[in-house]
Amino acid sequence: MPDESLFDALRREPDAEAPNLHAVDAADRLVLDTVAELPGIDRTMPIAVIGDRYGAMTLGAVSLGFTAVRVHQDAVTGARALELNAARVSLSDSYTQHTLGAELLTGVGTVLMQLPRSLAELTEIAEHIAAHASADVVVLAGGRDKHMTPAMNDVLKKSFETVTAGRGRQKARVLTATGAVASGMTYPVSKRIADVDMTVVAHGAVFAGAGLDIGTRFLLEYTPKMLPRARSAVDLGCGTGILATELARTRPDLEVIATDRSAAAIASASATAAANGTRISVIADDAMSTFDSESVDLVVCNPPFHEGAAVHTGAASKLFVAAGRVLRPGGQMWTVYNTHLNYRRELADAVGPTDLMGRNGKFTVARSVRPSEQR
Ligand SMILES: C[S@@+](CC[C@H](N)C(=O)[O-])C[C@H]1O[C@@H](n2cnc3c(N)ncnc32)[C@H](O)[C@@H]1O
User: Fold this and answer.
1) Is the Cβ atom of 268 under 6 angstroms away from ligand 1?
2) Å from CA of 239 to ligand 1 middle
3) What are the respective helix, strand and coil percentages of the chain, to the nearest 5?
4) Which residue in 167, 119, 115, 117 sits closest to 139, CA to CA?
5) Distance from residue 304's CA to the centre of ligand 1 (Å)
6) 36 falls in which pLDDT band (50, 70, 90)?
7) Interior/surface letters 104-137, b for 16+ CB within 10 angstroms, e for the rest
8) Pairing label, strands 281-284, 255-260
9) Ligand 1: which of 261, 312, 318, 334 to mutate, judged by most atoms within 8 Å of the beta carbon?
10) What's the rounded mean pLDDT across residues 170-199?
């Protein structure tokens, strides 16, 4: 087990911090203890860490003596949190970051991972491991009992001969998968959504898969009304890039950027635009942190409302504040949200005067206008 002082130093920054949200969990600890006890592991051989939330698994592996630690995190916020935490414990440069694929996994004999929430993401990860890692790879996939389902074992069994569940500890458990069986790649998948005449392309980790979220569907109806004089638009938290694609193909004068903190989302958005014969720019970023202030005319957003396991509106608030900074005076943000979330006040504070433009049984569409004068 890595020294407890390592875990004490870890923070979630730049993700929301709150007393009920932690940077290390029982699954991180159990996976690290399990790998520490595995017999016969050569700690100079490459090891891959997948889905590390804030760096506990990666930095824990380094502190256990692994010298070639390769990391894949879907969220740029996770990658940034790892970077910040590595600096806090003087372990910067002790690992390398990679996309999910051959560069991450070739020659790897051990994989440590946090089980992702969705089976689609788990399928994509498992298929990549089976395709690229050593045939005798050992995968230690940790999760918290309340988020684990028998279906996760079934997914792993499609890519590995043996999958066993270890004993639980502190409401966490490790699945051990061995005997990799490469069987081709399911993702990205693509699906035609006939009534909106769009083909959606999705990697495993992306929100709503290759489907069309009902909130997004409602916001799509409003795209012709969104600031007709706009020259630039951002699909903030773009997922598969449906909103960006719709704007780009219906308004050719608009320069459209799709941005999301998820690497899977960015890859999916690019592919969705291409599949519909249009072009957008994509930027992996945490809440437009790299965008200039007052640089964009229009922002469209179907905001996230889950922060890890806890329902927490911090993630949405962060996007609203970012839009308030990035919009030009007179620029507009169009947001769709579940009506009970009642974001109007918050949007008004973060962006500017906010009107409710539409409401159906479940969702509200709001338009917020950035004032001409700095408030
Ligand atoms: C409800 S989904 C909407 C996805 C897509 N726009 C759609 O309508 O299908 C919210 C998206 O916000 C992204 N997201 C969450 N926090 C973010 C952040 N801090 N910066 C950028 N994107 C973020 C998530 O990765 C997710 O793709």
Assistant:
1) no
2) 6
3) 35, 25, 40
4) 115
5) 5
6) very high
7) bbeebbbbbbbbbeebbbbbbbbbbbbbbbbeeb
8) parallel
9) 261
10) 97
